[in-house]
Amino acid sequence: MKKSQLSSSVLLMVLSFLFCVSWATSLSSSSSGDLISCLLSKSKNVTTISQLIFTPVNASFLPIWQVAVQNTRFLKPSTRRPSVIVTPMEETLIQTCVYCAKKHGYEIRIRSGGHDYEGLSYTADVPFVMLDFTNMRSIDVDVAKRTAWVQAGATLGELYYKISRETDTLYFPAGVCPTVGVGGYMGGGGYGNLLRKYGTAADNVLDARFMDVDGNILDRKSMGEDLFWAIRGGGSSSFGIVLAWKLSLVPVPKKVTVFILNKTLEQGATEIFHKYQYVAPNIDRNLHIRTQVFAEYIGNTTKKTIRIMFEGIYQGTTDTLLPLLSRKFPELGVTREICEEIKMVQSTLVFWGLPSSTPTQILTNRSAIAKLNNKSKSDYVRTPIPVSGLRKIWRKLIQNDESALLMINPFGGRMADFSETAIPYPHRAGVLFQILKTVNFNGQPSDTTPTSLRRIAWLRSLDALMTPYVSNNPREAYSNYNDLDLGVGSANYEEASVWGERYWKRDNFKKLIRIKAKVDPHNFFRRPQSIPVF
């Protein structure tokens, strides 16, 4: 027995030595040798762990970091990268990573899908370890119980595809971007085409598997209702590490009806959109009509117009939808010819800009889905914007160089049934719609060229122009569309409230701060705009 233990110890020492020597260049430049040694010393299988840990000296380091950088404006030499990337396949390595990072003074960034709007899941201005959940993406669907357990590294596309392989009459009420990671998405609330019928994604979370700052693995019962409340919309990575979510699946018909149509200023777009503000949040909650607003040239002329794309999805048949729209919104002009009855999983393809005939397996192909290259801001509207205000916004869009987009999702329905404090996500009763404002950097080598900087300045000026027309006290913003322009100060409540109350409102933000102080009093899990400890 002693001989066996001695042999194992010698083997560990030899492998650790060889492992560290092979990374000598990296260790000397990044000073991560202490962290690597810690990770190795805590591992029972050095050979296996060596295949899951990467430093800049590894040929795989840069491709692994780059593959899930979903906003390509961060793919530039000046972006700070991790000292170490850890790609765990099981929970013990995550526990080891938390222990070693704390011991040796590294911060941790947690990446499930890589869609953080400010790149905060894979970059930092301090030495950090990036936990990449790409190897932890199992999905277990229970049709009979209408539930699914989903590991943090799975994407929404993988979840939808898995559900669709099991049943056509259940789905999950989340977003339409297939490559968004489940782990962080639910942590910010999450919304999609079913929000008017079923609320946010976080409203439909039943349980979680969660690791705290001490490496304890908790479920809803053992973590308590306060922490379970906080991680569903309060930014779960501020409190620990979500390993998996248990989701409540919702019923959908075998076929839903979708339609897409466009209206320009010359076709009465302003008046139609003005009425849309009154109709879309109050109509039958089975109907969701998203809009996208663009400025574009008219044909081959030098004159610009505004085009509004109306994208509708109805939980029912065309025969039921058309009379509803005829009564409530005839100005929109939806006809049978532009309606298509398809499976719910196919509607995700359509809303991502793909034909409904596209094989649904593409939802699982992370490399087949185009990445973003943009800067964004969000707002919530509680009072219809008058025609005069819309025309000001249209004029501003026309001044843009065709890099801008407004994406608008109506609320109401089920969203108004929840109180602002049901979970941390507070944008509920009274919200008519949410606006995502974005500019892209297409055609530019980076987001720092003169053209890119002009686009960012334009976005900020649009944000200022819209101030009279959006929510106030606070001016609400969506935490999953994080925006560092709002501020990052966290030395005291006055500083943090500048951005925190916009994401969560005062009561929720103060409760999140109290919970954070209890579960992570030394603020190990931190990043810009994470829940602070004072």
UniProtKB/TrEMBL annotation:
The keyword Calcium does not apply. GO terms for molecular function: FAD binding; oxidoreductase activity. Its cofactor is FAD. Keywords: FAD, Flavoprotein, Glycoprotein, Signal. Residues 1-24 form the signal peptide. The keyword Kinase does not apply. InterPro entries: BBE (IPR012951), FAD-bd_PCMH (IPR016166), FAD-bd_PCMH-like_sf (IPR036318), FAD-bd_PCMH_sub1 (IPR016167), FAD-bd_PCMH_sub2 (IPR016169), Oxid_FAD_bind_N (IPR006094). SUPFAM superfamilies: FAD-binding/transporter-associated domain-like. Residues 78-252 form the FAD-binding PCMH-type domain. Belongs to the oxygen-dependent FAD-linked oxidoreductase family. This is FAD-binding PCMH-type domain-containing protein. It comes from Lactuca virosa.
